Amino acid sequence: MNTADPWRVPVVVAQIPEGGLHRAFEASDAIRAAMADVAGLREIMSARASFDLNLKRDGRVHVTGEVHARVGQTCVVTLDPIENDIDEVIDLMFAPPEQIRSLAALVDEAAQSEDDEVPDPPEPIVNGVIDLGRLATDALFLAIDPYPRRPDARFEPPAEVKDPADHPFAALKTLQSGDKTAQAGKATKTSGNDRDP
Length: 197
Fold this sequence. Notes:
- It contains four helices and seven strands.
- By secondary structure, it is α+β, with helices and mostly antiparallel strands.
- It is elongated and about 85 Å long.
């Protein structure tokens, strides 16, 4: 198993039938543990995906589907363990590498026009293969909440010190003012000694 990319479900584009292909799969315990390690999660309790692949003209493949997962995280406020559900919808076009630049240019043109809907740029088909596991992993990782918190968690700012004498630097301030008073007294005494009787 590739620890940096543990969930692998390759599909050879040349083997996709004209009527399309449906693939549904679930990550094993070992794969989920490796994914949690890569993502910095406490754990991934479940991870499953379902995809439909349909051939288009010029060797492109339209991939639609869903990714569902349950992940264990730590609340950023209370540090309690919490669980979050991930439900992501996938709708992507894959294309041979030689088409990526021209298709990306078409997407840029659409973005500059007044069209309401701008298609996503196509993903490259690498060595004639689309890795559905990698696609599911990317969708799962992008959906992870970077600042998870319990629904009832409230951040309480530190209480303000009401009595200035209770402030941790109050003693230091007293010492400093005492030093200034002593220095002022010495200065007065010195100046008084300089005068003739």
